[in-house]
Design goal:
The complex is a heterodimer of chains A (120) and B (110). Chain A is mainly β and 120 residues long. Chain A is 0% helix and 53% strand. Chain A contains no helices and eleven strands. In chain A, the strands form two sheets. In chain A, strands 2, 4, 5, 6, 9, 10 and 11 form a seven-stranded mixed sheet that branches. In chain A, strand 9 and strand 10 form a beta hairpin. The mean pLDDT of chain A is 96. By secondary structure, chain B is mostly beta strands. Chain B has no helices and nine strands. Chain B has strands at residues 9-12, 18-23, 35-40, 47-50, 64-69, 72-77, 86-92, 100-101, 105-109. In chain B, the strands form two sheets. In chain B, strands 1, 3, 4, 7, 8 and 9 form a six-stranded mixed sheet that branches. In chain B, a hairpin with a 6-residue loop joins strand 3 and strand 4. Chain B is globular and about 40 Å long. Chain B starts with 8 loop residues before the first strand and ends with a strand.
């Protein structure tokens, strides 16, 4: 059973950079067949896909966030990370990391999520 | 890429059958068989219920089924139970974004 756990700062000031890490257990970010994704959900609202990274290091981002997003992978720690720059209050959300099937495009394992609040 | 359209709420009595629609366009739902459905309880992470339009992951009840017609995908819950009360989201692959989610549907068991 693959497990994912988000970690990082829960409070970020406006204009600064949000940074989160997802630690993967019972699975490897270094093998093919899966993408490693970030999603978010503003309080009381719907889901939004942010982007993914593949084991090769290739990335694909939501066009609406592309200019501010960066996802990287640390194979030695079996982790992948999200950086979102120039945050505003609109970026306040629960952030989830997830494993996606490469080719069939569904998310089969998700972390519990972590709330990030953007406030001064 | 705009969100897929779902009804805000659907309700039914225990034992009934309900259907949640997910409407896209001929460029996403209507063209690709990469529609998935997720169940989410308050304060919890979404859980995969259906993938590739109609396939169920191991462990998901066969009371949940998926289908697609033209630009609309549907999730049907038969034999509705109190434990099915949750939010449900569809998702579809598109050429510009691999995961475009629906607006979400709150299922209420009366």
């Amino acid at each position: 059973q693959v497990q994912l756990q988000e970690s990082g700062s829960g409070l970020v000031k406006p204009s600064q950079t949000l940074s989160l890490t997802c630690t993967v257990s019972s699975g490897s970010v270094s093998t093919g067949g899966y993408s490693w994704n970030w999603l978010r959900q503003p309080p009381g609202k719907g889901l939004e896909w942010i982007g993914y990274i593949y084991y090769t290091g290739s990335t694909f981002y939501n066009p609406s966030l592309k200019s501010r997003v960066s996802i990287s992978v640390d194979r030695s720690e079996n982790q992948f990370s999200l950086r979102l720059s120039s945050v505003t209050a609109a970026d306040t959300a629960i952030y989830f990391c997830a494993r996606g099937d490469w080719g069939l495009y569904y998310l089969d394992y998700l972390g519990h999520g972590t709330l990030v609040t953007v406030s001064s | 890429q705009s969100a897929l359209t779902q009804p805000a709420s659907v309700s039914g009595s225990p034992g009934q059958t309900i259907t949640i629609s997910c409407t896209g366009t001929s460029s996403d739902v209507g063209r690709y068989q990469y529609v998935s459905w997720y169940q989410q309880f308050p304060g919890k992470a979404p859980k995969l219920m259906i993938y590739e339009v109609f396939k169920r992951p191991s462990g998901v009840s066969d009371r949940f089924s998926g289908s697609q017609s033209d630009n609309t995908a549907s999730l049907t819950i038969s034999g509705l139970q109190a434990e099915d009360e949750a939010d449900y989201y569809c998702s579809s692959w598109t050429p510009t974004s691999p995961y475009v989610f629906g607006t979400g549907t709150r299922v209420t068991v009366l």
